[in-house]
């Protein structure tokens, strides 16, 4: 795997792409945000960590400028932009039958959607605990530690699985090959489906949300719906474990001081990923005959807010 592309090189794509580049690999950033792409090409990617600020030279291009085929494409657009990005890459022959596509986006159902473009034997699904931010075009903010867990979307391993693991670990991204990535994806999606829309609708930090003494009465029915839908999709989740994970985020020393990413997206005038979290759970619920009124309602409320805030 010589040629690596990061399709969607915002905050998280910037982190993963820059770390792989720094490990000595041939990496290209692909993004639709022209100002960002120009800034990276003109001044380099400015990276601010806890201890230093430095500039990394890394090539960045717009999707229509792609003119080569990649061995590995890591997809880190927001969920709603992934299919359009991949179709452009496919039309530009950036993806062929040997290319591995790895989705590291939050949310549910990416493997099924991407399999409309390439077979599942070429798709890898990852879940990550790394975080990243952007301070402006071409300016990354990288704090904290994280990990990556991934698996081929059809559950089988191949030599590319080992190769991707090697690349991630060369890049100090702390990766492991999972034997059940779906469980991890659903667990993270549960946390995101609870805290993201609630803190966004209520305009509260995670800790502020937890201060209401009956917050469990809001959280538990949401978890119950997600566990029921996951079970019907063949993924076994434990409601008590998920509740504990959510409550572990409440203290200020954990994530309590933060507004979740959905809050940041909405109040910066951008569409949210709600259709890939609560909206996807409600969609699966309808298909499977499982009632998901709480997830359905949160999806509607976020869309109501998008009508007000998205420019
Ligand atoms: P991001 O918004 O930083 O980048 C995604 C895309 O948004 C980029 O392709 C860029 O073109 C565009 N973009 C960003 N800022 C813009 C601006 N000001 N103007 C115009 N376009 C802009 O998103 P992200 O946080 O990197 O998230 C990508 C995926 O990774 C999502 O699925 C997200 O849920 C997931 N994720 C993010 C983090 C994180 O800490 N950022 C952590 C884990 C998973």
TrEMBL record:
Family: Belongs to the ketopantoate reductase family.
This protein's name: 2-dehydropantoate 2-reductase
CC per GO annotation: cytoplasm
A GO BP entry: pantothenate biosynthetic process
Catalytic activity: (R)-pantoate + NADP(+) = 2-dehydropantoate + NADPH + H(+); 6-phospho-D-gluconate + NADP(+) = D-ribulose 5-phosphate + CO2 + NADPH
UniProt-listed Enzyme Commission number(s): 1.1.1.169
Transmembrane parts of this sequence: none
Class of the enzyme per the UniProt entry, highest EC level: oxidoreductase
One term of GO molecular function: phosphogluconate dehydrogenase (decarboxylating) activity
Lineage top rank: taxon: Bacteria
Residues in Ketopantoate reductase N-terminal domain copies: 4-154
Keyword Metal-binding: no
Pfam families in the record: ApbA, ApbA_C
SUPFAM superfamilies: 6-phosphogluconate dehydrogenase C-terminal domain-like, NAD(P)-binding Rossmann-fold domains
Pathway per the UniProt entry: Cofactor biosynthesis; (R)-pantothenate biosynthesis; (R)-pantoate from 3-methyl-2-oxobutanoate: step 2/2
InterPro entries noted in UniProt: 6-PGluconate_DH-like_C_sf (IPR008927), 6PGD_dom2 (IPR013328), ApbA (IPR003710), Ketopantoate_reductase (IPR050838), KPA_reductase (IPR013752), KPR_N (IPR013332), NAD(P)-bd_dom_sf (IPR036291)
Keywords: NADP, Oxidoreductase, Pantothenate biosynthesis
Gene3D superfamilies attached to this UniProt entry: N-(1-d-carboxylethyl)-l-norvaline Dehydrogenase, domain 2, NAD(P)-binding Rossmann-like Domain
Function: Catalyzes the NADPH-dependent reduction of ketopantoate into pantoic acid.
The Ketopantoate reductase C-terminal domain, residue ranges: 181-306
């Amino acid at each position: 795997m010589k040629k690596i592309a990061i399709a969607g090189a915002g905050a998280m794509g910037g982190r993963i792409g820059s770390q792989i580049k720094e490990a000595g690999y041939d990496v290209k950033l692909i993004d639709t945000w022209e100002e960002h792409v120009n800034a990276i090409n003109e001044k380099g990617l400015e990276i601010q960590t806890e201890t230093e600020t430095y500039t990394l030279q890394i090539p960045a291009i717009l999707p229509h400028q792609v003119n080569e085929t990649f061995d590995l494409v890591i997809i880190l657009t927001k969920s709603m932009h992934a299919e359009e990005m991949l179709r452009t890459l496919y039309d530009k022959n950036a993806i062929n039958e040997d290319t591995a596509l790895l989705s590291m986006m939050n949310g549910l159902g990416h493997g099924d959607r991407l399999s409309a473009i390439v077979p599942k034997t070429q798709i890898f699904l990852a879940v990550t605990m790394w975080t990243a931010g952007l301070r402006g075009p071409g300016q990354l903010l990288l704090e904290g530690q994280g990990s990556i867990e991934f698996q081929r979307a059809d559950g089988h391993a191949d030599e590319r699985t080992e190769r991707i693991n090697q690349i991630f670990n060369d890049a100090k991204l702390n990766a492991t090959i999972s034997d059940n990535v779906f469980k991890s994806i659903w667990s993270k999606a549960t946390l995101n489906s609870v805290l993201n829309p609630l803190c966004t609708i209520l305009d509260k930090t995670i800790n502020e949300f937890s201060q209401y003494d009956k917050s469990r009465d809001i959280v538990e029915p949401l978890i119950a719906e997600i566990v029921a839908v996951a079970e019907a999709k063949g993924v076994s989740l434990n409601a008590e474990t998920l509740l504990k994970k959510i409550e572990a985020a409440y203290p200020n020393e954990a994530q309590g001081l933060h507004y979740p990413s959905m809050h940041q997206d909405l109040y910066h005038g951008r569409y949210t990923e709600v259709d890939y979290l609560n909206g996807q759970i409600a969609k699966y619920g309808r298909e499977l005959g499982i009632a998901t009124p709480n997830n359905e309602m949160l999806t509607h409320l976020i869309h109501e807010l998008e009508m007000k805030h998205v420019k």
